[in-house]
Design a protein that fits this description.
heterotrimer; A alpha+beta (about 375); B alpha/beta (about 375); C mainly alpha (about 425); B: about 375 residues; alpha/beta; D-Maltodextrin-Binding Protein, domain 2; 14 helices; about 40% helix; C: about 425 residues; mainly alpha; MetI-like fold; two-stranded antiparallel sheet; 20 helices; flat
Chain lengths: ~375, ~375, ~425
């Protein structure tokens, strides 16, 4: 699943394992390779091992086994302060007893830069995040968004080639978060820095990244660009973790190349795209995105299997309609339809028939 | 025999005082003492027998003798004296008597005569230091030494002989006693000691003598320290109360010897608070009459190595109640031990303690 | 937006027409009363057990009392007559003063107050205690009509009545208020020429005060040195382990202070465990670790350590580990990260712990008494001694007042330098 080591890789994890207690592995056999300039997001639920990976890369945790390389050199035995990696922390970690300018000058000072050079770089970094006038303030006098910008500027001021961000937007409200998502990606691309970004917010991951690594249970479940991840999840964890998803459970009846037939637990038969199922008789979880479900029979292919459904709830959400159905015993089956002038508004209690394109319906592991 | 006689005498007195007064006596008493082994000796020697003789009478101990003066002052101000008989040292008795807080005693009528008919005033002799104080025991501050670490000292002046008796000495951290010993060992006759101490030259002379051993002195402030210091080998000779040394030597079997030379006597005894109501006063006097008679004071010496205050008690001192050893040789009043003694001169010290103590502390600081 | 009604002066009115401010105050007053009722028991407790005794102490340090009475109330006639007498004249007071003394002493003797008077004057001039005590009964036997002149009569009773210094003392201390306790507390005295230093061999309190402050500062520094790493470790550990260790830190509080002090004696004495080990290592000279200033520092550092650790711990617990990580990620070495980033954030805890330990140390007295030997005693030992053994409450109060002022001054200086708002106790 993960990319193998490649010659132009800037950051590389090779067979990395991590255990805290010697009994269980928090990170199991991690392989990952990033080219220079990439914005990669590690996404996953808490406890999935993503933050541990970040900390190993930063040097605050040591790998129990395996090799981590930066620009071709193993950094396993290099202490954090010599790695030259910029880092933005979850709660910014701005030093409360220093002014904003002192915070920014800190990494330059410990590198022995002269005063004038420091001041110049600090000012440039502050301007970069549109905080030029705030150098004399204390962190506590800034809003959350402003603190976030300063933290970003501090991680960038010493011009590191690699920047790590550990859930940096978690403490911001929705609007500010969206704005900062844009700012961060813009800066990262403008400066051409390689970024590893950790979050548990899938929207953030999808909107910001070049590639997303979905973590679960100490492994990368799928590493892919956002669209691939959303449209072609490779297993049922990824399918359920990314975006909204309908799941139906059943048994594979027959596999014919690109399609397969699945008998659902209540006996009905549907078509699906076999992703990681191999032979008939296997149990499967079938995954269909809510916006790919059709109840207008005209749009369906000839001979496609359809299912009976009862409308349980209709929610008007402005741009879309969200309708909850009972399908094959599943009462949480959701469909989303665009609010177009010709769109039918379903009513609770209504009996309808639904269907989809076989390639949109992915038969995944149970 | 003596016991029966005294018992009969006491009962006779009770009878003689008559049925009239019997109902004018309360049946409960609050006795105040020091707690510990000393209070236990009082309880065993005369409180227990008194209660056995007087059906229905009960006694409660209050271990407040150390604060007797301040507490009696407070009680007197509040007009509610709850104590009936109070054990105090002579110096405190003097203060209480001076301030009118202790009742004046008519010794010959209120206390029992000696078995041979000698009146109490003669039997107690010099120990009747003021009108309110009924002496019970004589104790002394004297020196104990390690029999296995130094040669046997024969004179108190041996504490100033660092060559003959090398090692640390323990002395009390106050001028009382030390100043007298210093002058005695500097050749001043005992009767001139206090006149000498009233002069600046005399004080300087005493300090000069103490200077010769100052670097080898461990200063104690609690009586229990010296036996411990001796037992640990921390000091080879040190001053403390003779009862403490007795228990270290005889009860704990430590290799410690007792030096009887120029030991400083002090007296401990009873006072009755002034202005008790008549029924309580009668009970207190009845108890005191019994508790300070010749046999009772001799009995007390079975339990603790302090000398009975009556001359007539000395021949009656028997064996230790538990150890079975003869107690007389351990008494500070034993003629063999009392060759060179002086009585703690609280009259003189009352005037000069404050002043000499300041000088003593200043001397310690030098 | 709804517009509130306003009255003629433009004040905003509440719904019932009263000015808004007024009705707000009324609403708040009820709240305040309730709050006050809740703290009333504590307030009362603090006033009775803390404010009043301290006020009493401050007063006592200047009140000229013998026992419970003011001196001039006990010798009213002498106080009045002696005013015109000048000790510098070199002559004894006139006959009227002696007569007044007889009159006053007779009353004092009847009321058993003469010894208290003697004790009061004895603080200034040694010997007056026995003068008053021994004279009491015989003076009360004098007949005011027939036994004059009283100068001769008194001197006949006791030579010391002819001592000019004693009369000077009586004159100097016949007012309701006196500064003699404060003078004594700073090693000064009033002699015939005015206020002067005491003889060098009687000066103790200034020396003791300086020593107390110095040793307390050393102890505070030692607790910081030892407590800082412990607090850091505690703050760094997971909660469950930290709680366990915290209990260990607090464990000494469960044993009596005396027991702890005594065990230090056993450990540190010449024939003690540490010295035995020292000799076993091959050293010949045994170390003097106890009964001196070193012993006081060791024992009190141990005893006061929790008071440093706890405030440090509570401050350190609020510092997220990400600060240190951030510093390191920015290129700081372990030491720089600690010194530039972590340490400055713990100054509040250091301030709180330091202030707490220092103030506790300054007032300590059992430990210095037991392990201080000749040169390790504190001023509190003298305060206690004056209070309990001598009974000179005035001097004890004056010393206590000076200590209080010194601590307040230090507190003020600290506030100026560091800012008291920066002190966090938890």
């Amino acid at each position: 699943m993960a990319d193998g080591a490649s010659s132009d890789a800037f950051v590389e994890f090779e067979r990395v394992q991590k255990s805290y207690d010697g009994e269980t592995l928090v990170v199991k056999d991690l392989n990952l390779s990033m080219p220079k300039g990439e914005f990669l997001t590690m996404l996953g639920p808490s406890g999935s091992g993503k933050t541990t990976c970040l900390m190993m890369l930063a040097g605050f945790e040591t790998a129990t086994h395996g090799d981590i390389r930066l620009d071709g050199t193993s950094i396993n035995n290099i202490p954090p302060h010599k790695r030259g990696i910029g880092m933005v922390f979850q709660n910014y970690a701005l030093f409360p007893h220093m002014t904003v300018a002192e915070n920014l000058a800190f990494p330059l000072e410990v590198r022995g830069l002269g005063k004038s050079e420091r001041e110049e770089k600090v000012q440039r970094a502050l301007d970069m995040v549109q905080m030029g006038a705030f150098g004399g303030r204390r962190p506590a006098q800034l809003s959350g968004g402003q603190q976030q910008r300063i933290a970003l500027a501090r991680a960038l001021v010493f011009e590191p080639e690699l920047v790590l961000m550990d859930e940096p937007l978690g403490a911001l409200d929705k609007q500010l978060r969206e704005h900062m998502q844009f700012e961060i990606t813009r800066l990262a691309h403008e400066l051409g820095i390689t970024t590893v970004y950790v979050t548990h917010d899938q929207t953030e991951a999808l909107t910001m990244s070049d590639r997303v690594a979905v973590f679960d249970d100490g492994r990368i479940q799928q590493l892919a660009p956002p669209d691939v991840l959303y449209e072609r999840p490779e297993n049922s964890f990824v399918a359920q973790f990314i975006g909204e998803n309908n799941t139906l459970e059943g048994v594979i009846k027959e596999i014919r190349g690109e399609t397969c037939i699945v008998q659902l637990d209540d006996g009905e038969i549907i078509d699906a795209n076999p992703v990681n199922v191999t032979e008939p008789g296997e149990r499967t979880k079938v995954s269909i995105r809510p916006e790919r479900v059709e109840y207008n029979m005209d749009r369906l292919q000839e001979g496609a299997h359809t299912l009976k459904a009862e409308v349980l709830e209709f929610v008007y959400m402005g741009d879309i309609f969200r309708t909850r159905l009972r399908v094959a015993g599943n009462e949480d089956f959701v469909i989303k339809t665009r609010n177009a002038p010709d769109q039918v508004r379903l009513k609770p209690g209504q009996q309808i028939e639904i269907g989809w394109l076989p390639q949109d319906c992915r038969a995944l592991d149970a | 025999m003596t016991l029966t006689r005294t018992l009969m005498a006491t009962s006779a007195l009770t009878l003689a005082a008559g049925m009239v007064t019997a109902q004018d006596m309360v049946n409960d008493m609050t006795l105040v003492s020091w707690g510990g082994a000393y209070q236990a000796s009082q309880h065993n020697a005369y409180v227990e027998p008194y209660l056995a003789m007087n059906d229905g009478v009960s006694a409660v101990w209050d271990e407040s003798s150390a604060e007797a003066v301040t507490k009696l002052r407070a009680m007197s101000e509040a007009g509610n004296i709850t104590w009936d008989v109070v054990d105090v040292v002579a110096a405190d008795a003097m203060r209480l008597c001076d301030e009118g807080l202790a009742m004046e005693i008519d010794f010959d009528t209120m206390l029992a005569p000696a078995p041979d008919g000698t009146p109490a005033t003669e039997d107690f002799g010099d120990l009747l230091v003021n009108e309110c104080f009924i002496p019970q025991i004589v104790y002394s501050t004297t020196f104990g030494y390690r029999t296995d670490l130094i040669d046997q000292p024969t004179s108190v002046c041996d504490i100033f002989d660092l060559e003959g008796f090398p090692g640390q000495r323990a002395l009390e951290k106050r001028p009382i006693g030390n100043m007298e010993w210093a002058l005695i060992c500097d050749g001043v006759a005992i009767e001139d000691v206090y006149d000498e101490l009233e002069t600046e030259e005399g004080v300087a002379r005493a300090f000069a003598k103490l200077d010769t051993i100052k670097d080898s002195v461990v200063w104690w402030s609690a009586g229990a320290e010296t036996p411990q210091l001796l037992a640990d080998g921390e000091v080879v000779i040190g001053s403390t109360y003779n009862g403490r040394l007795f228990s270290a030597i005889e009860e704990q079997g430590q290799p410690i010897g007792m030096l009887w030379d120029w030991q400083m006597f002090d007296i401990d005894g009873w006072i009755i608070p002034a202005d008790l109501p008549e029924d309580r006063l009668n009970r207190a006097l009845d108890f005191i009459y019994f508790a300070t008679d010749t046999q009772r004071l001799a009995d007390q010496a079975k339990y603790i190595s302090y000398g009975p205050a009556r001359a007539s008690s000395a021949p009656l001192v028997g064996d230790h109640a538990e150890l079975g050893i003869e107690m007389a040789p351990h008494m500070p009043t034993d003629p063999a031990n009392a060759v060179n003694t002086f009585l703690f001169n609280y009259n003189w010290w009352a005037s000069y303690r404050d002043d000499l103590d300041a000088q003593f502390q200043a001397w310690l600081l030098q | 937006m709804a517009h509130a009604e306003t009255d003629a002066q433009g004040r905003i009115l509440a719904a019932d027409g009263t000015p808004l401010k007024q009705s707000l105050q009324r609403a708040l007053r009820a709240q305040k009363m309730r709050a006050l009722l809740l703290i009333a028991p504590l307030l009362l407790f603090v006033v009775i057990t803390f404010v009043m005794p301290i006020g009493d102490m401050l007063l006592r340090s200047v009140q000229n009392k013998a026992g419970t009475h003011y001196v001039p109330d006990l010798i009213p006639n002498v106080a009045e007559q002696i005013e015109d007498w000048d000790p510098a004249s070199g002559e004894l007071p006139p006959e009227e003063v002696f007569r007044a003394m007889v009159v006053d002493l007779q009353v004092a003797f009847d009321e058993k107050n003469h010894t208290q008077l003697g004790r009061r004057f004895n603080y200034e001039s040694p010997g007056m205690d026995s003068l008053f005590r021994t004279s009491g009964r015989r003076v009360s036997g004098l007949d005011l009509e027939t036994d004059g002149p009283f100068r001769e009569a008194l001197i006949d009773i006791n030579d010391d009545w002819g001592d000019l210094e004693y009369w000077a003392t009586i004159k100097a201390n016949s007012g309701y208020y006196t500064n003699s306790f404060f003078l004594a507390a700073v090693d000064m005295e009033r002699d015939s020429t005015g206020i002067a230093q005491k003889d060098p061999d009687q000066r103790i309190y200034r020396k003791l005060l300086v020593r107390t402050l110095w040793l307390s500062a050393v102890i505070t520094f030692c607790t910081l040195l030892l407590g800082y790493p412990v607090a850091w470790l505690l703050a760094d550990l997971p909660a469950r382990k930290a709680n366990l260790l915290l209990i260990l830190v607090l464990l000494p509080f469960w044993t009596s202070l005396l027991v702890r002090t005594s065990s230090w004696k056993i450990l540190l004495q010449q024939e003690g465990v540490i010295n035995d080990f020292w000799v076993w290592l091959g050293f010949v000279e045994r170390l003097s670790l106890i009964n001196n200033q070193l012993g006081v520092v060791i024992a009190m550092t141990h005893i006061l350590l929790p008071f440093m650790i706890l405030p440090l711990y509570s401050v350190m617990k609020t510092i997220p580990p990400s600060y240190l990580r951030a510093a390191k990620s920015l290129g700081a070495t372990n030491w720089t990260a600690f010194w530039r980033v972590y340490f400055p954030q713990t100054t509040a805890g250091i301030g709180a712990g330091g202030l707490l330990v220092f103030i506790l140390a300054v007032g300590y007295f059992i430990t210095p008494e037991l392990v201080g030997g000749a040169d390790g005693t504190f001023i509190s030992n003298r305060i206690y001694f004056q209070f309990s053994a001598i009974g000179n409450w005035g001097l004890a109060a004056a010393l206590g007042t000076i200590m209080l002022v010194v601590v307040l001054v230090l507190y003020y200086v600290y506030d100026r330098l560091v800012g008291i708002d920066n002190v966090k106790l938890g």
